Amino acid sequence: MTTVAEPRVRPQPSTLTRLRGWLRNPWGKPRALVVVTWVYILWSIVPVLIAVQFSFNATRSRTVWDGFSDRWYWGDPVDSVLHDPALSNALAQSFKLAIADVLIAVPIGVLLALGLARWRGRGSGTANFIMLFPLVTPEIVMGVSLLLVFSHVFTFIETGTTAQILGHVTFSISFVVVIVRARLFSIGRQYEEAAADLGASPFRALTRVLLPLLTPAIVASAAVVFAISADDFVISQWLSSGGPTDTVPVQIYAATRAAPLPSVNAIATIMMISTLLIVTVGFLTWRFFTRGERRAGKAAEDFGRAFDLT
């Protein structure tokens, strides 16, 4: 009688062994980068989520959770964001500066980007390099410099809302130029040349052909400028005259030096959600207008070309 050997049952690897094999798989994607990325994301987001959570706390504590409440947004008749004049004014001032910055910096940045992208004469490289100065200059240096300019040169401009708007516009223009130049290099000059061949004047080619093609970059740059301006602290602080010209970041800084209430978390949450919504709208608009180009593999080169100064 022949004995049939039972199939050997291979032991199942432990979870630790499978995880080690997943990380060390030489034929797969770089697994360690995935782990590092998610660790960084969690490290960045979890503290923010905790701060948002305590903005809905029912009591004054910012460390012990005592139940959900909208007290610090509008429920408290004294200390909520809606009823505290300092917080509500700071919120209005931040939005005022951000909207004014977008309305001024974006048109100037678009025109500057057009000039720098089309300039091929002597000095074009130097001009493109100088344009990037606000991006690499420490913000504290920029804030002190602007304060000295308004204090000793343009003395007719006092610190306050006007000085803050001019300061925000000064450092925001470079962001607009970088994004719009990337779009210009991506679409090339063939559309303008085709419009000129069909008899269009330079102005007509600009308004009817080029600017519609630049729409996704203009919307994206407006979203970036709004986010940067709304979250700015250094320049807003140096150019503030106090009181009604303090912005949300300035108010948060002043509150954290004392005994802050959860209303500080609430106003920070409002600013964060507003900024995220604006940036999301800008990103979705960019994706909508560039959906055909992304399928052709062109849109991915936009931001890489933006920093090519040659």
Kindly describe this structure:
The protein is mainly alpha-helical. The chain has two domains: 24-73, no CATH class; 82-306, MetI-like fold. The protein has 16 helices and no strands. It has helices at residues 15-24, 31-54, 71-75, 85-118, 124-131, 133-136, 139-152, 161-187, 190-197, 202-213, 215-231, 234-238, 248-256, 262-289, 291-296, 302-306. α4 packs parallel to α8 (161-187). The N and C termini lie far apart (86 Å). Mean pLDDT is 82; it is low at 299-310.
Keywords:
MetI-like fold, mainly alpha, 310 residues, 2 domains, flat, 16 helices, 0% strand
**Shape, per Cα inertia axes:** flat
The H-level CATH homologous superfamily of the largest domain, spelled out, is: MetI-like
Mean pLDDT over the full residue set: 82
Helix content: 55-70%
The tally of domains stands at 2
CATH topology name of the largest domain: MetI-like fold
Taking pLDDT < 50 over at least 5 consecutive residues as the criterion, the unreliable ranges are 299-310
Rg:
26 Å
Total strands: the figure is 0
Which structural class do you get from the secondary structure elements? mainly alpha
What sequence of helices (H) and strands (E) makes up the elements? Answer: HHHHHHHHHHHHHHHH
Alpha carbon gap, first and last residue: 86 Å
Strand content: under 5%
Number of helices: 16
Mind summarizing the main beta sheet?
A: none
User: Can you tell me the CATH class of the largest domain?
Assistant: Mainly Alpha
CATH architecture of the largest domain: Orthogonal Bundle
